[in-house]
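name: query_chain
kind: protein
chains: 1
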Amino acid sequence: MKHINRWALAPMVMAIYSANLAYAQDEQNSDAAASMEEVLVVGTRATLKNAVDQQRDAQNIISVVDSDALGNFPDSTAADAMRRLSGIAVENDQGEGRYVTIRGLSSDLNSVAVNGASMVAPENGRSVIMDGIPTELMDSISVSKTLTPEMDADSIGGRVDFNTKKPTDLKDTLLKVKLSTKMAEYTDYSSAPNASLTYGDRLNDSTAHIVSFTYSSKKIESFNNETGFGWEDGFMNDDWEMRWYELERERYGLSYDINTILDSGTVLFANAMYNKYDETETRFKDEYGKLGFVSSLDNGKGMVTDRIRHDSETRQRYETREIGAVNFGLETNLNDWAIDAKVSYSWAQEDDSDNADVTFRNDDKALGGEIYWSNPKRPYLVAYDPTLRDPANLEFDAFEMWANVSDDEELSFEFNAEKETSMGVVKAGIKTRSRTKDVNDYIIGYTWDGATMADWDSGTVNDWFFANQVFGNHVSGATAYAMRNQVAQMDVDFEDAISRDFTTDENINAVYVQDTIELENAVVIAGVRYERTKTDSKAYDQDGNRTSSDKSYGFLSPSVTVKYFINDQVQLRAAIWRGLSRPGFTQTAPITSVNYGTAGDVSGSVGNPDLKPYEATNFDLSLEYYGEDMTYAAIGIFRKDIKNAIYPTVQKVATINGIAFNDGVETWINSGDSYINGLELNGQYGWDNGLYIAANVTFTDSESEFKFEDSSVFKTPFRKLAEKAANISVGYDKGPWDVRLAGNYRSEYIDWLADEDGDIGNVSKNNTRWVAPFMQFDLVAKYKVNENLTARFEAANLNNRPEYYYWGNKGQLSQYDIYGKNYTIGVEYTF
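structure:
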């Protein structure tokens, strides 16, 4: 697919819409309809009740985060809002929720849509970032845990739908302003402004529109300890590093929705959503590597090393991410058929091309030192060389700049028709999707003979607070960035302009048919969907020659969903359905590096275009009770039988994309069979005095199987799957006060299999990276000053819970991050 000028498309869509709008307005009577007084239900209890109502009415199994009558959510970002749902886990980045896991399936195995338009990913893979999407742009967020034939089949975990507010729901003018400031514990509570504006109104009896603007900023200071895979027989044998981050994140959001109802009953609609995310990052990395074991210390919790290679690295980076979507469509009736059609365009970009990274090095091969890890999260070093961190002894090692730009865009068209028949409501449709992922990844490195850190001003992190640790000297981020203007004085060490570049075109054509049969006490939805996928990829080999690959495959997805009404308050749901998740773009791109030995040996690395998609057969059963007001309880079980899970590997002998390797090739393979079993429990209840409680817990069990060339079998829990996840919210919502204390928990899970070499064939417990259990508490308090003005206070990560990753056992550090508490104070005024 050729690249589309995204900003050229939006005016074109709106121009088409305006022409129809002008026609519609000519048809309308100018007399305004009599207004109707309406009681607005607001507050956290209202959001919980609205969510339960949507779940009750849905035909499939869903979980919902909903807003109140004024469009307010208890949480400010999509990731934090979804964190409260059953079966949902959130992966954090710098203390903010970024990626959403559904029922143990990682973010790249699930799909995301805004108003039905598939969202694409700003990074190189398929994972859609959630921390850049503010809830101020949304009306509701729903997670479909079972799929019906009318839905895209490309998620084996679930589908996330973000829905903006429908303008035709407006009964009166809506004008809402929010102002707030965010403060973080480790940034000395410096202020970061946030603001949003929402305006909606009816243009006439049949046409209404809503526009929302948001701006948010946040300052972050975080502290980190980590190792690469640097453990052998319980001792640190590679490298250990301390990192300090100072970040500022700014987000700009816009959404616009307009709907028209013609006299004929036809509905015309257009909507757009855009979000931009700017990040400024300064990073100091204080690294101690090339450790050589001499003897054990502290009962095996420390060691003497005979050498230390000390690196002082400073990185200054300015990164931008964009995501957006535009929809234009109609809903109408033709004879006895209900027809809807929609054109959608979505795009995403990650631009990491404004940066600088400088490293200074002192390689002590003579004296060495002692390193201790009785507290594995915070090791510390006693260097025998007192000048190890002296700027005069830190020689200029490398200066690097890179220009990494990833573009992703998709254009789609869908057409659906349904009709009531004697056999039920028959619905059929087609959909075509054309997607292009284009990655340009450039890097250049320099050396500077004779230069040392002493040639520039340097200093350390004054507020480094981990006990016994000494954080070394670094040049400032501004100094590192200024070196971009000094490269003429340096020597080029290496340059790589194309080896990681690739472009993949993916075209998907789908057709489905389903029948919804309403019985006396039940609703049955049965049908089938077929999707045909074709990919064409281009990349480069080690000599700069073009490489290419293509693949086509089909997927048949039958499903049956049953909703049985036991009585007015209790219903039973069951579903059998199939889903797929397509391989990652970098996994299949024909990026090729081949080494030809003199004895005929062929080794190297290559993407694998022959990878099969993940395929899952899913079984779901839930029993649900809906009481008065917000009262709700449910128990559900599910099973997923998964084929073709994808993992990295080193294969001794393999033929991939026409190249016969006989001496080892790094690539990706499909594993054996996997399964996930799960149990979900949900409940919420509110008292007349304003108190309420909402809680859920999910238990899972899983296994993945790998078969290797020697016919050996290795079994492991499914990647990214926490066996236990739970949420609890306790609150008070009555009168002017609306207060909620929320806790979010997940147990440990596997993050990576095998070490940095990426060889699943050598996987063991010791080189498997685990994420430790996590529990976080957040507080939201709102006070309604009068009918229009509300004051708001938020406290996130009240318990200052750090994140911890480890290799094999909790005594072997992989990564430890601490971010501190975060606070928000603000006001909201509704006119």
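note: The longest helix spans residues 6-27.
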